[in-house]
Amino acid sequence: MSLRLSTVILPYRRWHEGSREAWQRAEQLGFHTAYTYDHLSWRSFRDGPWFGAVPTLTAAAAVTDHLRLGTLVTSPNFRHPVTLAKELISLDDISGGRVTLGIGAGGTGFDATALGQEPWTPRERADRLAEFVPLLDRLLTEDSVSYEGDFYSAHEARNIPGCVQRPRLPFAVAATGPRGLRLAARHGQAWVTTGDPKLYENGTPEQSIQAIRGQVEKLADACAEIGRDVTGMDKILLTGFTPDRARPLESLDAFVDFAGRHRELGFTEIVVHWPIADSDFAADEKVFEQIAMEAPAQLGRGVGA
């Protein structure tokens, strides 16, 4: 089974002070996709520089040629489907059809309260995502959309000419619960997981593998419910949140072993964070680049392609 290698470039640097060069270098290294987080701020970066995802991806589209671009992930926490659809159609056009939308329910961090609201409960987040994703699907595929829901409305929202990618740009739906997995099965061209967060602190890599295997099986069940073959769906692992943490980036051999074990679970794409010194994503840049350039050959045809 082929496996692609992608990266996440966090938007914490000014464009002309290292950010532009990182996106261009990602293309030179052969990464399949370069994603960024779609947050207003994030965890330890909250009190430092942090830039918007869509403008950053637009700038990245202008200085790259074939690198795919995307979010990991966008959520309803501060987004509305009508305005988001317009931005995505514009970004897809500027990039020449190179955009993937990672989308999920969001969490309880800074995004959840920055607009002045109380954080939503897990059920409320799931309820909103269940309405957000189908409406966004319509907005990206229909010229005019009107809709009245419990959380979102659209009145003759126009989105002409639509996406360059047809019928729309792909969705990569982040989910582990039953409702989210059903959304992924119905609307996603890909599924995203970070593993089981309950294992991050005290779990083992072996326990993580078992937990992720269970997630993949539940995704297959959700697909089977609607008559979809799960083998035709891309499966993306965003690394850095399993008990392995940064260990897969310590050496080429460590990464090949880690990626190979997850490929056996059916994953088609492994995403690694671009190194950031003095952070949870600290890594040796030389080793990181060696992995980008040499891991594809060791893992077989399709990586980075």
Write a brief caption for the model:
The protein is an alpha/beta fold and 305 residues long.
Description:
The chain is α/β, with parallel strands linked by helices and 305 residues long. It has helices at residues 15-28, 53-62, 81-95, 122-141, 178-187, 205-225, 252-263, 285-299; strands at 4-8, 33-36, 68-74, 99-103, 144-148, 153-158, 171-174, 190-193, 234-238, 269-273. Strands 1-2-3-4-7-8-9-10 form an eight-stranded parallel beta barrel, surrounded by five helices. Helix 2 runs parallel beside helix 3 (81-95), helix 5 (178-187) crosses helix 6 (205-225) and helix 7 packs across helix 8 (285-299). The longest helix is centred in the C-terminal third of the chain and has 21 residues, at 205-225. The radius of gyration is 19 Å and the shape is globular.
Question: What keywords describe this structure?
Answer:
305 residues, alpha/beta, two-stranded antiparallel ribbon, disordered C terminus
State the total count of DSSP E strands: 10
**Largest beta sheet, briefly?**
8 strands, parallel, barrel
Strand order of the largest sheet: 1-2-3-4-7-8-9-10
Assess the beta-strand content as a share of residues.
15-25%
Can you give the mean pLDDT? 96
Strand-and-helix sequence, N→C?
EHEHEHEHEEEHEHEHEH
Structural class: alpha/beta
Helix content: 25-40%
- Low-confidence region ranges: 301-305
